[in-house]
Amino acid sequence: MNPNDGFRELDREECLRLLSRVPIGRVVHTRHALPAVQPINFSLDADSAVVMRTSADSELAAAIDGEVIAFEADEVDAAAHSGWSVVVTGRAAMVTDPVEHGRLTRTGPRSWVASPEEVFIRVEPELVTGRQLAGGRSVYGLGLSSS
Amino acid sequence: MNPNDGFRELDREECLRLLSRVPIGRVVHTRHALPAVQPINFSLDADSAVVMRTSADSELAAAIDGEVIAFEADEVDAAAHSGWSVVVTGRAAMVTDPVEHGRLTRTGPRSWVASPEEVFIRVEPELVTGRQLAGGRSVYGLGLSSS
């Protein structure tokens, strides 16, 4: 079997570094018993948790609070056949502490759909995995580095 | 509850039209008991099935053949807070018929990592859902159309 299907596995540090470069990721969860994938803007907290912001009464908040979910982000160049993808898997939790909420209001992601009452949702980075796809040539021959 | 969290639900036709515009999507499945999300190039078949191309011995092919999976694609403008996301849910199946394989060699997606033996995987569009996010303003006020 083609090892890793032509992908180079990334270590945790590389994954988090790449993740910090993009503004959009995708929450992977279940909605009405079906797989749901929702793009959303996010930021990384100081402890590398994924932070999202949504209205307090959103369907998303209700669906994922307390659940183990996957959060994915990627950058893919279709023309060059290259890119990377990172998945953070961990438990999502609404931030209920007012001090933490205040902190994230200053440091966290902006809201896309303003609503009267917003909450932050943090996803603990319990498992962080990633892959880098090198287009067309041997992964090792491309001299890919973490920079 | 904010209806659909500020998203406008898209009908099947709109979803497939949007899906046909992008070269990359993501396979959402399970790998080593964990959620796996893998970006991959694809095309839509004449019957709107999602078509992927991979090496015959790939981990991906082994993982999803015969399984119900989700395939997601999106276009998101982080600055404008707008975009769309479509999810096709259906059973994935390796194409084994040589005539079909020949047809897809001509009409299907190109392979990113050339391998001696490649297969096509089709995902039946059993369920096609999508959402369009309008940035910051009422969805209805933006006059969004299908064009």
Automatic annotation (TrEMBL), chains A, B:
SUPFAM superfamilies: FMN-binding split barrel. It comes from the Bacteria. InterPro entries: Pyridox_Oxase-rel (IPR024747), Split_barrel_FMN-bd (IPR012349). This is Pyridoxamine 5'-phosphate oxidase family protein. It comes from Streptomyces kaempferi.
